Amino acid sequence: MRTVGVEEELLLVDPETGEPRALSAAVLARASLDDAEQDVFEKELHEQMLEFATHPQVDMGRLHAEIVRCRGEAARHAGGIGCAVAALATSPLPVSPAVGMNRRYRWMADQYGVVVHEQLVLGCHVHVSVESDEEGVAVIDRVRPWLSVLAALSANSPFWQGKDSAYSSYRSRVWQRWPSAGPTELFGSAETYHRRVADMVATGTILDEGMIYFDVRLSERYPTVEFRVADVCLDAGTAALVAALARALVETAAREWREGAAPAGHSVSLLRLAAWRAARSGLTEELLHPATMRRMPAETVVRALLEHVGEALAACGDLDLVRDGVARLLRHGNGARVQRELLERTGSLRDVVTECVRRTQAV
Description:
Belongs to the glutamate--cysteine ligase type 2 family. YbdK subfamily. Keywords: ATP-binding, Ligase, Nucleotide-binding. 48% of the residues lie in helices and 13% in strands. It is of the alpha+beta class. It has one domain: Creatine Kinase, Chain A, domain 2. The strands form 3 sheets. Strands 1, 2, 3, 4, 5, 8 and 9 form a 7-stranded antiparallel beta sheet that branches. Strands 6-7 form a two-stranded antiparallel sheet. The two termini are 26 Å apart.
């Protein structure tokens, strides 16, 4: 069975005011004292962010438990220096992001200017194992139409600089400012994929392969495909749900490839529109159906995803977990809806952050 790993980016905030705090170096220093966690937490572009990576897992229950554990350890280390962690894909409160000053980040700041200085957004990346680059690229070609549905399920960034953005996932709109971000055309082979990446790096517009920010890409470090469309999810259970769906999409796509089924030929232009609609609507309105690229109720489109990957979910033992998780999201809402309801109830973005800090560590 394919293994799955998750990388989550968490926001460091003041536990009293809810304002982001540029203390990642101090948190990482504390974490480095724990030998068991030296390969778990990583530095990110901005000092208000902390990233962790789970170990690869086969069982989704164990993956969920590890996400909860890593969030708890992040909270413990952050609490030791007087701050807290929140699984928020953008800061609800105004923030002036502090860029890390290693060589790589300085190059990015010089090259991209205001894009870097406004890019405090936090995502959830899912790695799913593949047998080869050839299989991985076949998967990338075939999952493209379904990525917008994952984005809608995970949407958790309605606020930007203290205001309602009118989007469910404003993080994804900010992320599109990178020159290499977004959906891709069909590659057809691993050779074409690698040639395309090499050509992009050769332009000098991006620094290296690490700046290939496709919605889904071959991992540089692991034998995986990496899904990069999801907001960091408010609840750990939603992150595990997205991971289970990502694995099912990979398994379904790989099976289609082995059986000789061609990928859907949707243009990048249409895929961008589907991504925009998912960012705007989340689960509250309509999405573009991956088969027809026409607007349909979000619940209908989510049900279509479940039908598309149902056989793979059953084979992995994830069908009940995913059905329950989707039903819960459709009933109670994703992180974007929760944040808006919290603001409506409390009238305070600070209180929104405080409650999201609590939910970040909830099982």
